[in-house]
Write a structure and sequence with these properties.
mainly alpha; DNA polymerase, domain 1; hpI Integrase, Chain A; 2 domains; 3-stranded mixed β-sheet; two-stranded antiparallel sheet; 13 helices; 7 strands; 9% strand
């Protein structure tokens, strides 16, 4: 069984490189974490699944800091998810989460995005433009239907089937109309052979666009860039939170790394007493 899992591990690393577009350093980190774990975890073959007991491995790495442990376990979870998606039923035991400080992907500058778009083909430009100007999750872009796009608004179905409406820029609408006029679309904005493009296909488009200008960029970084641009332009946190589809503004504050200076500035502009000076 361990030999089969090692074979799957090599396939998983190739998937991370070819489909997910992960950096060589990240792939190396995944490889090392999984290889290390396989030396310690208990593998039990059940009738309907394979049980991977992580407890022996967790004991082994328990002296490490929480962030390191979390990264190692995250690699194993991703590998297990890949196995389940590829006809190998796997269940993890002893997979309790580790609490660590939240970190976020670095936003991409507007100048770099514009530069990348200048080398992009039509479909590529539409994918990147919608992610950047609408702040969508890649899953939301995948499921975006033609009926949900109007002249000035896009209706998005987010997590928990919650709907939100996002303004559609005039230039984005023109670009989208040009793209849709080039081929027949039955239901979804992004289709191929009558079927919607998968998240992986859309993600790979983003990777290709920015690779041409020497950057490694994920769709989530474009979402982060969308939020950062709005907040840096003094957009109210509540509005940005609604546009992102967050359930609370606290999530938005963490997501966008709002500094105390910006919060103080917003407070000074908003509170009526801030304009009153003692005589």
């Amino acid at each position: 069984m361990k030999k089969l899992i090692k074979t799957k591990q090599r396939e998983f690393l190739k998937y991370l490189q070819d489909i997910r577009g992960y950096s060589d350093l990240t792939i190396k980190s995944y490889d090392e974490s999984i290889s290390e774990a396989l030396q310690h975890i208990e593998i039990v073959e059940e009738k309907s699944h394979i049980l991977l007991n992580l407890m022996p491995y967790r004991i082994k790495i328990s002296s490490l800091n929480s962030k390191t442990i979390s990264k190692k376990l995250s690699a194993i979870r991703s590998f297990a998810e890949y196995l389940n998606d590829n006809e190998m039923r796997v269940i993890l035991k002893g997979d309790d989460s580790i609490k660590v400080a939240k970190t976020l992907p670095k936003p991409i500058s507007h100048a770099h995005i514009i530069e990348a778009l200048s080398f992009a083909e039509l479909e590529e430009r539409v994918v990147v433009t919608l992610l950047y100007t609408l702040g969508l999750r890649i899953s939301e872009l995948e499921s975006l239907e033609l009926k949900d796009v109007s002249k000035e608004w896009v209706r998005v179905i987010g997590k928990g089937s919650k709907q939100r409406d996002i303004p559609l820029l005039e230039q984005s609408k023109k670009l989208l109309d040009e793209y849709l006029s080039k081929s027949v679309h039955k239901k979804f904005v992004f289709e191929k052979n009558g079927e919607k493009l998968s998240e992986n296909s859309l993600r790979y488009i983003v990777i290709k666009v920015f690779r041409r200008v020497g950057l490694k960029v994920s769709p989530h970084q474009l979402r982060h860039s969308f939020a950062s641009q709005l907040l840096n332009g003094s957009a109210p946190i509540a509005d940005v939170s609604e546009l992102l589809g967050h359930s609370s503004m606290a999530t938005t504050q963490i997501y966008t790394k709002l500094g105390s200076a910006l919060k103080q500035q917003n407070y000074n502009m908003a509170h009526p007493l801030c304009g009153v000076k003692e005589s």
